[in-house]
C-alpha cells in the first residue's frame, strides 16, 4: 500500500528515509545539513512536571495547497486542555526556528510536500502548519518525548520525523485507534524516517528514553496541519 492508502485505511502511514524521494520528492542528502540546528535548541521553560529534558523551537506557516508555503508571524503555541491535559490552556512562547532552517530549500520542499500529500486525502484550500523542533536528552536520567501521555493534537494531520537518535534506550512510538483497541508499536531508529497520522482517527505517544552511553539524545521534527486556522484561546 502507498502512504495515501495506509492513511485512509488505518489512520497512519510510515515512510522510511528511502521513501521520501519517491513519495515526497525530498532529497534526504539535502536534509542532513539541517541536523546541526537541533544542537542549539533552547530549553523548554514550560514543562509542568519540573523536568529539564526537553529543548525546542517553534514556527508557523500557511500553505496554499497547490501554491506557496509562507512563514507566518511568530505566535504562541496553544492547545486546549481537552487535547493536552498537562500543558493545555497555556500560551507557550518558544524561540522561533532559525532563518537558516526555514529558508532552506529542502525544508520548504519537505513541509509543502507533506501538506500536498495530506490534501490528497482531505482537500483543503490551505493548511495552517505548526513546526516544532524537539530535542529530548537523558542528562538527568530519563527523558519524556510525550510527558502528556497518549494524546491527539487537535489538528487534522500530524507528521513526526526522526532526525537523530544517539545513545538512548526506549522511545517506543505507539499509535492506537482513537475509537478502538487496535494499534501498533515500533521504535523509530533510522534518521529521517517519517510517521504520518490522521489526528482525528488515532492517538499517539512515545515512551520515555533512558541513557545508553554519554550524551543521549532523541531529536525529532513534528509538523501539524490544520485547515481551520491556528489553535488559539
CATH first level: Mainly Beta
The CATH homologous superfamily name equals q2cbj1_9rhob like domain
CATH topology: Jelly Rolls
- Ranges with pLDDT <50 over ≥5 residues? none
Number of helices: 5
Count the E strands: 12
Structure report:
The longest helix has 17 residues, at 105-121. The protein starts with a helix and ends in a 7-residue tail after the last strand. It has a single domain (3-226), classed as Sandwich (Jelly Rolls). It is globular and about 45 Å long. It is an alpha+beta fold and 233 residues long. β2 and β3 form a beta hairpin. The chain has helices spanning 3-10, 20-24, 28-31, 99-102, 105-121, and strands at residues 12-15, 54-64, 69-71, 126-137, 157-166, 168-170, 172-177, 183-187, 194-198, 202-206, 209-211, 217-226.
Explain the layout of strands and helices.
Blueprint: H1 3-10, E1 12-15, H2 20-24, H3 28-31, E2 54-64, E3 69-71, H4 99-102, H5 105-121, E4 126-137, E5 157-166, E6 168-170, E7 172-177, E8 183-187, E9 194-198, E10 202-206, E11 209-211, E12 217-226
Antiparallel strand pairs: 1-9, 2-3, 2-4, 4-12, 5-9, 5-12, 6-11, 7-8, 7-10
Outline of this structure?
The chain has 233 residues and is α+β, with helices and mostly antiparallel strands. It has five helices and twelve strands. A seven-stranded antiparallel beta sheet has the order 1-9-5-12-4-2-3. Strands 8-7-10 form a three-stranded antiparallel beta sheet, with no helix packed on it. Strands 6-11 form a two-stranded antiparallel ribbon.
Amino acid at each position: 500500500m502507498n502512504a495515501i492508502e495506509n492513511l485512509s485505511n488505518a489512520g497512519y502511514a510510515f515512510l522510511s528515509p528511502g521513501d521520501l524521494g519517491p513519495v515526497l520528492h525530498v532529497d534526504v542528502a539535502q536534509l542532513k545539513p539541517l541536523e546541526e540546528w537541533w544542537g542549539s535548541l533552547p530549553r523548554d521553560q514550560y514543562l509542568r512536571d519540573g523536568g529539564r529534558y526537553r529543548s525546542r523551537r517553534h514556527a508557523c506557516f500557511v500553505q496554499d495547497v497547490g501554491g506557496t508555503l509562507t512563514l507566518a508571524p511568530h505566535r504562541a503555541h496553544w492547545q486546549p486542555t481537552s487535547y493536552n491535559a498537562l500543558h493545555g490552556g497555556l500560551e507557550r512562547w518558544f524561540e522561533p526556528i532559525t532563518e537558516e532552517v526555514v529558508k532552506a530549500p529542502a525544508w520548504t520542499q519537505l513541509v509543502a510536500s507533506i501538506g500536498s500529500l495530506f490534501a490528497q486525502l482531505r482537500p483543503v484550500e490551505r493548511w495552517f502548519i505548526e513546526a516544532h523542533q524537539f530535542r529530548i536528552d537523558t542528562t538527568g536520567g530519563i527523558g519524556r518525548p510525550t510527558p502528556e501521555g497518549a494524546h491527539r493534537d487537535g489538528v487534522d494531520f500530524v507528521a513526526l520525523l526522526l532526525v537523530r537518535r544517539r545513545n538512548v534506550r526506549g522511545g517506543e512510538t505507539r499509535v492506537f485507534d482513537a475509537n478502538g483497541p487496535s494499534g501498533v508499536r515500533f521504535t523509530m531508529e533510522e534518521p529521517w524516517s517519517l510517521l504520518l497520522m490522521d489526528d482525528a482517527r488515532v492517538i499517539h505517544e512515545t515512551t520515555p528514553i533512558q541513557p545508553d552511553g554519554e550524551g543521549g539524545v532523541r531529536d525529532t521534527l513534528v509538523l501539524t496541519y490544520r485547515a481551520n486556522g491556528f489553535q488559539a484561546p
